[in-house]
Write a structure and sequence with these properties.
By secondary structure, this protein is α/β, with parallel strands linked by helices. The chain contains 22 helices and 14 strands. The strands form 3 sheets. The protein has an 8-stranded mixed β-sheet.
Length: 605
């Protein structure tokens, strides 16, 4: 099943660009993999430390090198609703390993912060950097070199990308990502958004807002809107790193536990000790990366992944660019409408046919590479299924994905897409580069040419709104929000405010070197502007009243002043001292100083 020629051409150019770094990466992981299990060569004191806390049967197995040992990297904490179900996973995994005569150990825990809790707060300035901290923390655990494979327990925004970077750094090991699933549906997302706007306008109080939020985020599991967390799960499945059909099964259900046991046994079956050795460094190749990008576009996924996928690919020696991502968007139809791109949530998406339906439709249209290795086996066709509980209530059985969508307003076919393209585009102009997600923006709002209103903090914009100063058409420029300035926080606090102005009939857009992620919604937003203001980017030369053109159709982002005038202006300076201390920010100064630009993944590596 050959991919569309346009998909093939983009994949080929990525492979050609990446050839030197990819070849060096594969040589490194193959040399490491050839060494075999390290346990047999550890000094006795080293090995004794490694299994001191194990029971007698596990010690006996670990003393040799003929039975596999599975490393568990867990992002469990019980403050994140998405990660709370992981509390019981280690014992579930250990028991499943023992059933096949193997062992499993928690190799390390990694930090996991909730962007929902830190949204608009100082802690959000650590969020993006937490991705690279997670990668390093996972590496510390795996550095004990006691493991033949690893399973990764993570869901949310920076956590899965960080775990993926770590897994690929240890690319000689097989790896499977094990989700926990979304919470059951609560207050509809459009109603939650309505209450937020009413609160922003002062028409309802905090009590009504808290009640709405609590009905929306109400139990264990991932938040049900299609932001970065659920985009992560889609990516892990379409890139072949989940068990088929695993992404969107609710927590604490018999099927969820059965999928976790299956993932454990599968990881143990694909080690170098068996006949199906499948290291993750070979699973995540150029074709798998392209499949991930196509999945992102076909579902209207999070803009955060224009950074995360670049960083993940780089960890595998692959050079992915924003131009690649934008070009893939142009040829990928939008097949899913999940909030903020529609009214449904991910439970409705799953009920309509879920990942199995989506992958089958994309494969049938030639928009995915079928000939890939996956953690489940060869070929992506194995993922065109839905998972069900076996009759004995302990295992997993699979059947073909539904032939017809259960709800054509949520999930459609490739020949009847919601949109001809994925709606994620790279913008270019004299301001530099940026990205925009237009899949949730009405066509008549995708082109804005209006005077700039410049802010250097999102709170300043909020104050101007409350003072009634944001009248007429304008482009809000919120700068000094890039990774080197303050860690590149998400600016979700701006969405309700700007949404109110849109509803009043004003033409409004946002331009920022910060982030908005998968919940940017109906406001046209040019985000991740690079070079950022702190690095002397042109966004730092904008003045109030400058005409800004944001064209989400053609891909233009320009300051409509002459090049001579623009370059003659000094770059603005901002007092960022308050962003350097408190809530741990002082510990991250080295990250702010070392981080690379957004279009290269905003990484410290």
């Amino acid at each position: 099943m050959a991919a569309d020629s346009r998909i093939e051409a983009i994949t080929r150019r990525i492979a050609e660009r990446s050839a030197p770094t990819r070849e060096a990466y594969l040589e490194r992981i193959e040399a490491k993999g050839a060494e075999g299990p390290k346990r047999s060569r550890l000094n006795c004191g080293n090995l004794a430390h490694g299994f001191a806390a194990c029971g007698p049967s596990d010690k006996a197995r670990l003393a040799g090198d003929v039975t596999p040992n599975l490393g568990i990297i867990t992002a469990y904490n019980d403050m994140l609703s998405a990660h709370q179900p992981y509390e019981r996973y280690p014992e579930l995994i250990r028991q499943a390993a023992r059933e096949v005569g193997a062992t499993a150990q928690v190799a390390s825990g990694v930090p996991a912060m909730c962007d929902g809790v830190t949204q608009g707060q100082g802690g959000m300035e650590l969020s993006l950097f937490s991705r690279d901290v997670i990668a390093m923390a996972a590496a510390v655990g795996l550095s004990h070199d006691m493991y033949d494979a690893a399973v990764y327990l993570g869901i949310c925004d920076k956590i899965v990308p960080g775990l993926a970077i770590a897994a690929l750094t240890f690319g000689h090991l097989p790896a499977i990502f094990v989700p926990a699933g979304p919470m059951t549906s609560g207050l509809p997302n459009d109603e939650k958004a309505r209450i937020r706007q009413l609160y922003a306008e002062g028409k309802v109080g905090r009590e009504a807002l808290l009640e709405a939020e609590s009905k929306s985020y109400h139990g264990p599991g991932t938040c049900t809107f299609y932001g970065t967390a659920n985009s992560n799960q889609m990516l892990m499945e379409i890139m072949g790193l989940h068990m088929p059909g695993a992404s969107f099964v609710n927590p604490n259900t018999p099927l969820r536990d059965a999928l976790t046991r299956e993932a454990t046994k599968r990881a143990l079956s694909i080690t170098a000790l068996g006949n199906e050795f499948t290291p993750i460094g070979h699973v995540v190749d150029e074709k798998a990366v392209v499949n991930g990008v196509v999945g992102l576009h076909a579902t209207g996924g999070s803009t955060n992944h224009v950074m995360h996928l670049v960083a993940i690919a780089a960890a595998a020696g692959i050079k992915l660019t924003w131009a690649d991502i934008s070009d893939l968007s142009d040829v990928t139809p939008l097949l899913a409408r999940v909030y903020p791109n529609g009214l449904a949530d991910v439970n409705h998406f799953e009920a309509a046919g879920g990942m199995g339906f989506l992958i089958r439709e994309l494969l049938s249209a030639g928009l995915l590479h079928e000939d890939v290795r996956t953690a489940f086996g060869h070929g992506l066709s194995a993922y065109t299924v839905e998972a069900k509980l076996s009759p004995d209530g302990h295992g997993v059985v699979r059947s073909p994905a539904p032939a017809v969508s259960g709800d054509e307003k949520v999930l459609t076919t490739a020949d009847k897409p919601f949109s001809a393209n994925g709606g994620l585009k790279m913008l270019k102009g004299n301001m530099g580069k940026a990205v925009i997600k237009v899949s949730a923006v009405k066509p008549e709002r995708r082109i804005v040419e209006a005077p700039a209103r410049v802010f250097e903090d999102q709170d300043d914009l909020q104050s101007a709104f409350k003072a009634g100063e944001l009248t007429g058409d304008f482009v809000a420029v919120v700068r000094f929000q890039g990774p080197r300035s303050n860690g590149m926080p998400e600016l979700h606090k701006l969405t309700p405010t700007l949404g109110v102005l849109l509803d009043r009939g004003q033409k409004v857009a946002l331009v920022t070197d910060g982030r908005m992620s998968g919940a940017s919604g109906k406001v046209p937003a040019a985000i991740h502007v690079t070079p950022e203001a702190k690095e002397g980017g042109a966004i730092g030369r904008i003045r109030d009243g400058d005409m800004i053109r944001l064209d989400g159709e053609s891909g233009e982002l320009s300051i409509l002043v002459s090049e001579e005038e623009l370059m003659a202006r000094p770059v603005a300076q901002a007092d960022l001292s308050r962003n350097e201390h408190g809530l741990g920010r002082e510990l991250f100064a080295v990250f702010r100083n070392a981080v690379g630009p957004a279009d290269l993944g905003a990484s410290v590596f």
